[in-house]
Each structure stands twice: as structure tokens, then as C-alpha cells.
TrEMBL record:
Keywords: Hydrolase, Thiamine pyrophosphate. GO terms for molecular function: 3D-(3,5/4)-trihydroxycyclohexane-1,2-dione hydrolase activity. Residues 48-130 form the Thiamine pyrophosphate enzyme N-terminal TPP-binding domain. Residues 219-352 form the Thiamine pyrophosphate enzyme central domain. Pfam families: TPP_enzyme_C (PF02775), TPP_enzyme_M (PF00205), TPP_enzyme_N (PF02776). It comes from the Bacteria. This is 3D-(3,5/4)-trihydroxycyclohexane-1,2-dione acylhydrolase (Decyclizing). NCBIfam families: myo_inos_iolD. Belongs to the TPP enzyme family. InterPro entries: DHS-like_NAD/FAD-binding_dom, Myo_inos_IolD, THDP-binding, Thiamin_PyroP_enz_cen_dom, Thiamin_PyroP_enz_TPP-bd_dom, TPP-bd_CS, TPP_enz, TPP_enzyme_TPP-bd. The gene is iolD. It is an enzyme of class 3 (hydrolase).
Length: 616
């Protein structure tokens, strides 16, 4: 048997480079690059290994470990989970900084390979710099924080362990059901240890998307349920994108005139002006879609985990409605007492389309859906029109950015009030034109995520819409975008605080407290007014502050013409949100309070809880 003597770190990198993926007939590297911030826990092992392959496998230096992992997540999401990146950081705080991002990847089912540096496996120099000592279990290190937020976890304490561990990590990263982050703890001494690896271990392997056909009995049950329905509604989830099932989905809903509601992850599965696209669904849903769901007798959920924002905390859908969940993961397919239809969306939708024959929904239902859709589009026009004020709403800003975006451009967002306005109001015909991290809704994802999206789609303009709160939480990758020549356009909406939670606090009966900068603990002079334009300029971007929508539209044209990242900031109105659409969200209200407003909010809360109980 032919062998190759390599360090553990060198073997990891060589094996990962041998993994390929077929995309539309073309063989490409599975790993498009490695994000790395080096320290004593990985520089001499993984750093040395990466140096020798830097031409074939680029190493990207970031400014923050969490942020670089967000960029890797955004890249993999944009590439439909077929190509991905790895992330390495030093032992201690560098690695733990990536744990939040690992949770983002886990919740959203996105593949990222984490290679965190770890303490010495030999324990000879313990305790080393940045080591977290555990008083009762010497096997624990800070890297064990990755366990609950990884779909696969291992700690490599011997170099030969790679022979069994790496294939398992790749299996999880490429599996449509188990897909998510994989973590291999990398003790810094073991990274440098050598072993005679079988040469065949590094043979090229081409991976293909596995497609699971539906069970015949489950398929027959679903067909029977659909044929009995008169008022069906379809929910489009993110699984449609990952399955590459957009053509089959279009044919299915168009053939049978099925009204479609989009989740955050499913947005873009149909063009915004498609005749069956009713708009978004749920807590931040369109009035059209939510009205149909409240009357529907059958929900066909495709590729969605039916989170609380989609289901209106289980109070949106007609309690008498039946649910079919078409999902490749049985874990998701049985939620909400649904009839499971476990299978790949591309394969299963085609079979459903062929099997339904001449079935059709009730004619009045089709007509009602068309009328509600038309009404909703008029509402979107109104919400996104410039009112001409110097303190515009988020909806007006969304309209301005949307008008500036081209057919193949992309908007990126993650947290605060903007995801709701964007889900309701953003219009795109491009299936990748809407990129929202709303599984974990991680503040700080936006700018780093925009960078990852741009790396995946360099020909698209990437518009990052972000609130002042998220911007201040994590903004360092502006400098990285400039350094790498990956231009993003950032629009910072400054409402001086956490406006989304301020509104939620008031809806729960509370006073304004500790959310806006004006109602939190400060000095007598108050909180400073952040100059976001000056800050972005200090990080190397071009920037400007504007005062209204008209100026924003002009600035967006300058941003599109720029050759480097460009930030535009403007002050916005913290109070209004577009009221048309939306539904209840279960945020528990205090059962006992000295405030009358809270007691009134509790009564409203209990009325919705009663509806929720009907759907359990």
C-alpha cells in the first residue's frame, strides 16, 4: 500500500481539496476557500498547511471570527449548499467567537466546516494560554461549546483518526437531511504530528445531490387529501431552492392554480409578479396570503420547517385545515400534526403534478386569490412610495433600494424590523435576489453575510440593508470587503436604537425602556449620535449621509457606479411599520402587572392563545 507522510493539518487540507461537486454538469471544488484568523492554536499547524496550497485553495483573512463564519454561511446558502467554505481560528476566544455563527448555520441547515484550534492533547504544558480549565472533567475544552450547535462534532487527538472522522464530516455537510455545520476540534500539537496516510485516502471524490423519492403510501395519501380539498394554499420554503425544484414547483402551482405564500427562506421561489404568488406568509406576511390561510381547508407546506413566524405561532391557519408537509427531512415533515410526505421536492412535485389529473380548486377560491393578490400589490405600491418627508419609514427605504436594484441584484438582511418589511415588500424575479438570515435572526450577520453573498455572486450588486443596532454590533468586515475587492452597497437605517423591540415592548403593554437610545441609561448629555458614514470611510469604504428618499435614490446610483464598497446612511422614523398584513406572534405577556396597558395586552394575548390551542 502506497502511503504519504503528512502532518494532521496537511492531511486535512489535502483531503478537503480532493472533494469535488458536480454543478450543472461541471466539476468544481467543494470548498471554495478557507476563512482564517491565525493564533498560537492554529498558525503553525493549519497555517503552515494552508500556505502551501494558497493558489489552489485561497485563504481569506478576516477581522472577526464570528463575522468570517457568517460570510462562509452566506456563501454556502447562496450556492444552494453545493459549494461551501471552512473556517479556522485559534484556541480559546478565537474559536469560541465562531460558536454563534455555528448556531446560525445549524438553525438554517447550512454547511460550514469549523476547524477550531484546541489545547494540547498531550496536556504536557497545561494550562496553556487561553485554556479554559474544567475542574471536574479534564477532557472538556472551550471547543465543547460547539457540540450543541454542530450537526457533527469530533476532536482529533491522533492524526490517524482523520481516516474515519473526515468522511463522516463530509457526509453530514453534503447530506440534504442532516446538512449543517461540522466541527473538528484541532489540538494544536496534534495538528503538527505526522502519520503515514494511505495515498488512496486523498483520491478525488465527486459528490452529487442525493434525491430521495417519496414513499408510495405517503404519496397516495397526499394525492387523496389534495383531491378532496377545495381551498388549498401552498407554502414555499427554502428547501425548494436547495433541491433545485423551482421549475417543478412553478409547474405544480401553475397547473392547478394554487395560491402560494412565501417564507423568508422560500422567497424568490416564484417571481414576485407570478400569478400564483400571493406574497409572504405569517407574522410578517402579506394580507392576501394570511387571509387565505385563515380560510383554507388544506395547507401544502413544501421545504419549510414551519417556524413560528410562518405559522403565526400556530394561530394563523384555519383550525379545521389539514396539512401536508413535503420535506426531505422526516423531522420537519411531521410537525403541526401534518400528513408527512418525505422526499426530495424536485422528484415529489413532479409526481404530484402528474397524479392530480383534472383536479382543480374551487373556482371561487381561485377568483378570490386573484383579487386578494391584486389588492396586496396595490398596498405594496402605497407602502414603498416616497412621502417626501425628512424622516422616512423603513418601507419607503425598502422601496427606494428595490427600485435601484437590477433584475439579478440581491438584498441581504437578518435582524430587527427590516426583515418584516423586506419579506412583505421586496420584489424580485431572481431566485437568489432575496437573502435573509431569519432562522436565528442573528444581529451582525448582515454586513459579513453581504460579503459572502458577493463572493458567491460577483456579477450581482449586493445591497445590505441594516439597522444602526446591528451595524454597531458587527461591522469589521467592511474593511475585509475593501481589502478583497468584494464590493457591497450598505444602507444603514438609523432610528437611534432597537426600534423593532421598542415596538414589541409597547405592544406588550410596556413603556419605552432600554431599547431606544433616548430611553436607556446614559449620561446627562445622552447617547452619542454615531456618524456611520465617517466610520465606514475609516474602514476604507466610500460613504455619505442623506436626508430623505430622493437623496437616497441619487446616492444609490453613485454607489452602483463605485468600484469599492459604499455605505449610505439616513435617519428613519422609529415608530411606524407598514400595518397592512402580518398576524399574531406568541411573545408572552406578564400575567400580573401594575400597568393597565400590560393587563390589557395580557387579555389580547390570552384570546390568541385560545386559537393557538385549537391548532395543537
Amino acid at each position: 500500500m502506497k502511503t504519504i507522510k503528512l502532518t494532521m493539518a496537511q492531511a486535512v487540507i489535502r483531503y478537503l481539496m480532493a472533494q469535488k461537486v458536480e454543478i450543472e454538469g461541471e466539476i468544481k471544488p467543494m470548498f471554495a476557500g478557507c476563512w482564517a484568523i491565525f493564533g498560537h492554536g492554529n498558525v503553525a499547524g493549519l497555517g503552515e498547511a494552508l500556505y502551501h496550497v494558497k493558489e489552489e485553495l485561497p485563504t481569506y483573512r478576516a477581522h472577526n471570527e464570528q463575522a468570517m463564519a457568517h460570510s462562509a454561511i452566506a456563501y454556502a446558502k447562496t450556492m444552494n449548499r453545493q459549494q461551501m467554505m471552512m473556517c479556522t481560528a485559534s484556541a480559546g476566544p478565537g474559536s469560541v467567537n465562531m460558536v454563534t455563527a455555528a448556531a446560525v448555520a445549524h438553525v438554517n441547515r447550512i454547511p460550514v466546516l469549523f476547524l477550531p484550534g484546541d489545547t494540547f492533547a498531550t496536556r504536557m504544558p497545561d494550562p496553556v494560554l487561553q485554556q479554559v480549565e474544567n475542574f471536574h472533567d479534564q477532557t472538556l475544552t472551550s471547543n465543547d461549546c460547539f457540540r450543541p450547535v454542530s450537526r457533527f462534532f469530533d476532536r482529533i487527538t491522533r492524526p490517524e483518526q482523520l481516516l474515519t472522522s473526515l468522511p463522516q464530516a463530509i457526509r453530514v455537510l453534503t447530506d440534504p437531511i442532516e446538512c449543517g455545520p461540522a466541527t473538528l476540534g484541532m489540538p494544536q500539537d496534534v495538528q503538527t504530528m505526522a502519520f503515514d496516510y494511505p495515498a488512496s485516502f486523498f483520491d478525488e471524490k465527486v459528490h452529487h445531490l442525493r434525491r430521495q423519492a417519496p414513499d408510495n403510501r405517503e404519496l397516495e395519501n397526499a394525492i387523496t387529501m389534495i383531491k378532496q380539498a377545495k381551498k388549498p394554499v401552498v407554502i414555499a420554503g427554502g428547501g425548494l431552492h436547495y433541491s433545485g425544484a423551482l421549475k417543478e414547483f412553478d409547474q405544480f402551482v401553475s397547473t392547478y392554480h394554487l395560491p402560494v405564500g412565501e417564507t423568508q427562506a422560500g422567497k424568490g421561489a416564484l417571481p414576485w409578479d407570478h400569478s400564483q404568488n400571493m406574497g409572504s406568509i405569517g407574522v410578517t406576511g402579506a394580507a392576501s396570503t394570511n387571509a387565505l390561510c385563515s380560510e383554507s381547508d388544506l395547507i401544502i407546506a413544501v421545504g419549510t420547517r414551519l417556524g413560528d413566524f410562518t405559522s403565526g405561532s400556530r394561530a394563523l391557519v384555519n383550525p379545521d385545515a389539514k396539512i401536508i408537509c413535503l420535506n426531505v427531512a422526516s423531522f420537519d415533515a411531521i410537525k403541526h400534526k401534518a400528513q408527512p410526505l418525505v422526499g426530495d421536492a424536485k422528484l415529489t412535485l413532479a409526481q404530484l403534478t402528474d397524479a392530480l389529473d383534472d383536479w382543480a380548486p374551487d373556482g371561487q377560491w381561485i377568483e378570490k386569490a386573484e383579487q386578494l393578490r391584486a389588492q396586496w400589490q396595490k398596498s405594496v405600491d402605497i407602502a414603498t412610495t416616497d412621502r417626501g418627508t425628512n424622516l422616512p419609514t423603513d418601507a419607503e427605504c425598502v422601496g427606494a433600494v428595490n427600485r435601484a436594484a437590477g433584475e439579478n441584484d440581491i438584498v441581504v438582511c437578518a435582524a430587527g424590523g427590516l426583515p418584516g418589511e423586506l419579506q412583505k415588500l421586496w420584489r424580485t424575479r431572481y431566485d437568489k435576489g432575496y437573502h435573509m438570515e431569519y432562522g436565528y435572526s442573528c444581529m451582525g450577520y448582515e454586513l459579513a453575510g453581504g460579503l459572502g453573498v458577493k463572493m458567491a455572486k460577483p456579477q450581482s450588486e449586493v445591497f445590505v440593508m441594516v439597522g444602526d443596532g446591528s451595524y454597531l454590533m458587527l461591522n469589521s468586515e467592511i474593511a475585509t470587503s475593501v481589502m478583497l475587492g468584494q464590493k457591497i452597497i450598505m444602507v444603514v437605517l438609523d432610528n437611534r436604537g432597537y426600534g423593532c423591540i421598542h415596538r414589541l415592548q409597547q405592544s406588550c403593554g410596556g413603556p419605552g425602556f432600554n431599547n431606544l437610545l433616548d430611553d436607556c441609561l446614559t449620561t446627562e448629555n445622552g447617547a452619542p449620535k454615531t456618524d456611520f458614514a465617517a466610520h465606514a470611510a475609516a474602514l476604507g469604504a466610500r460613504s455619505e449621509k442623506v436626508n430623505n428618499i430622493s437623496e437616497l435614490e441619487a446616492a444609490l446610483e453613485r454607489a452602483k457606479a463605485s468600484d469599492i464598497s459604499y455605505l449610505i446612511t439616513l435617519d428613519t422614523d422609529v415608530t411606524p411599520q407598514w400595518e397592512d398584513g402580518g398576524t399574531w406572534w406568541d411573545v408572552a405577556v406578564a400575567e400580573v402587572s401594575q400597568r393597565d396597558h400590560v393587563n390589557e395586552a395580557r387579555k389580547r394575548y390570552e384570546s390568541f392563545k385560545a386559537r393557538q390551542l385549537q391548532n395543537l
